[in-house]
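Deliverable D5.2: sample structural annotation.
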Amino acid sequence: MIARIPIAHLPGREATEGAFDESIRKLSPLSIDLEFFMKEKIILIGADAMAKSFFNAFELPLTIARPFNTYGPRQSARAVIPTIITQIASGKKQIKLGDLTPTRDLSYVEDICRGFIALAECEKAIGETVNIGSNFEISIGDVVDNIKEIMNSNVQVITENARLRPEKSEVFRLWCNNTKIRELTGFEPKYSIKEGLKKTIDWFTNPENLQKYKTDIYNV
């Protein structure tokens, strides 16, 4: 096995090759629109290009891995799933969220790690750009409903304007095409969305873990 590390991974990158989104379908995999990307996204696109250049110029054995939206224990409070879980777990009767209509391809963290390992052990993946994701699309609203069901909560959701992204910066549909990683490595996600959320909720509702999160502020 050739030892190498996946380079230039971009969690949830909107212009990922093989991502399904009508608003971005016409973009090339590395095209840059300053109204569409945030500064850090552009930097990460540059990291992709640098990694590819080292492969082309020096035959450095690498794989560019592009994991989609990852969730699970210890996730930052900036992400929507910890925001939902911690507000409910803290006993709030109303929780504040942004737009519930965008869809995402969510993967439990263990599946993403398995994807990285599968690519690192696959010689056919050398020089390739490969998505890691579930190939399952779910709206934020449906994520809320799943979490409420698992936590046996009837909490009311309030849309807070401060949590709404500017229209031109929001990605309303993001769905991973994981065909390449399946064909190269045989990778398949192990956890369904409900199974992953259950494990995530179990971690966040542990009082020792929950106390690390501030549910009364909007984490940006």
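Annotation notes: The chain has one domain: 6-210. The longest helix spans residues 39-58.
The annotation will be released with the project's public dataset once the embargo ends.
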